[in-house]
Amino acid sequence: MTYLILGLILLTVTLSACAQLALKLGVMRSHVQSALEGGLMDALVAVALSPLIWLGLLIYGLSVGMWLWVLSKVDLSIAYPFVGISFLVTMAFGAFLLNETITPARIAGTILIAIGCVLVGRSA
User: Fold this and answer.
1) Which of 15, 29, 91, 105 is most open to solvent, judged by the fewest CB atoms within 10 Å of its CB?
2) Is the pTM of this model over 0.85?
């Protein structure tokens, strides 16, 4: 696997985590929370009008486009385990940007996922 491919895999995974962050921030907005409690139509309108949710979807779209290119160059069995790295990035976003509590069990599980990604990457 070339450094270019590895870099694009890591960028794609990071973009996916960024999309998750934008979506989370979008649904955390008070007007979206109120709409989600108000019923299906209110929720759909609030979500459809949320810039952060649209940003998250846009980032996902970019990530998917890049992922398709990566899959055209690398075996799926090599590329897909790197998706596990998104657990690391997403957990870091949750802890540092959203002040979420991270338990030792969650840290241990995430480290195991990362170790698996490294082992798969080294086999390429």
Assistant:
1) 105
2) no
Q: Residue ranges per domain, the chain?
A: 3-122
DSSP string, the chain: --HHHHHHHHHHHHHHHHHHHHHHHHHHSHHHHHHHHH-HHHHHHHHHT-HHHHHHHHHHHHHHHHHHHHHHHS-HHHHGGGGGHHHHHHHHHHHHHS-----HHHHHHHHHHHHHHHHHHHT-
Q: 16 Cβ partners below 8 Å, 6+ apart? A: 59, 60, 63, 83, 86
